[in-house]
């Protein structure tokens, strides 16, 4: 989580909407798809990914591209892309129009009664995790809100969207 947050801070429609360079879906972002290998992601984005292992032996790594876009973090587990995260100043949005800086109320309106709300582990109340599953426990999108009830991080992908620190 520390690497993710450092990278993020430093640097409607169906949730299965068609790939678009500006839209983060549960399946990926633009041509980058959940399940791709790191080498395939690098080929698709046209540049090397940089980052450190979160767990030993590169079982779990978070990577960013120096070439951009900024504040976009790719998580790989056992060599496969499992999560894409957006952070501060990201211009990407979900298919339902939610981006960084949206309010928790906007997320609730966009995702409706199937949205699961849980207290945030590290943010002061009313900070929370708001999670919407397309396939429960397997494919979804999660929004982290802060004490001002604004979205500051968005995760999309596999059950990895639930990880709070590293790959757990």
**What is the strand content?**
25-35%
Straight-line distance between termini: 10 Å
The fourth-level CATH homologous superfamily is: protein yfey like domain
The number of helices is: 3
Q: Structural class of the helices, strands and pairings?
A: alpha+beta
How many strand elements? 11
Structure, briefly:
With about 170 residues, the protein is α+β, with helices and mostly antiparallel strands. Helices cover about 15% and strands about 35% of the residues. It starts with a helix and ends in an 11-residue tail after the last strand.
Notable features of this structure?
alpha+beta, eight-stranded antiparallel sheet
Description:
With 168 residues, the chain is an alpha+beta fold. The protein has one domain: protein yfey like fold (Sandwich), CATH 2.60.460.10. Helices cover 15% and strands 35% of the residues. It has 3 helices and 11 strands. It has helices at residues 2-10, 38-45, 104-111, and strands at 24-25, 28-29, 32-33, 49-55, 60-65, 72-77, 80-86, 116-119, 128-135, 139-145, 151-157. Strand 9 and strand 10 (139-145) form a beta hairpin. The protein is globular, with a radius of gyration of 15 Å. The chain starts with a helix and ends in an 11-residue tail after the last strand.
Task: List the topology elements.
Layout: H1 2-10, E1 24-25, E2 28-29, E3 32-33, H2 38-45, E4 49-55, E5 60-65, E6 72-77, E7 80-86, H3 104-111, E8 116-119, E9 128-135, E10 139-145, E11 151-157
Antiparallel strand pairs: 1-2, 2-3, 4-5, 5-6, 6-7, 7-11, 8-9, 9-10, 10-11
């Amino acid at each position: 989580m520390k690497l993710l947050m450092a990278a993020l801070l430093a640097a409607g429609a169906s949730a299965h909407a068609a790939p678009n360079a500006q839209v983060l879906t549960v399946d990926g972002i633009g041509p980058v798809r959940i399940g791709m290998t790191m080498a395939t992601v690098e080929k698709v984005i046209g540049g090397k990914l940089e980052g450190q292992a979160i767990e030993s032996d590169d079982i779990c790594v978070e990577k960013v591209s120096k070439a951009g876009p900024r504040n976009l973090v790719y998580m790989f587990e056992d060599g496969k892309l499992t999560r894409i995260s957006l952070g501060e100043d990201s211009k990407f949005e979900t298919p339902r129009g939610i981006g960084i800086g949206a309010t928790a109320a906007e997320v609730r309106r966009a995702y409706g009664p199937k949205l699961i709300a849980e207290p945030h582990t590290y943010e002061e109340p009313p900070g929370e995790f708001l999670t919407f599953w397309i396939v429960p426990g397997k494919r979804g999108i999660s929004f982290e809100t802060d004490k001002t009830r604004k979205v500051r991080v968005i995760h999309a992908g596999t059950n990895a969207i639930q990880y709070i620190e590293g790959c757990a």
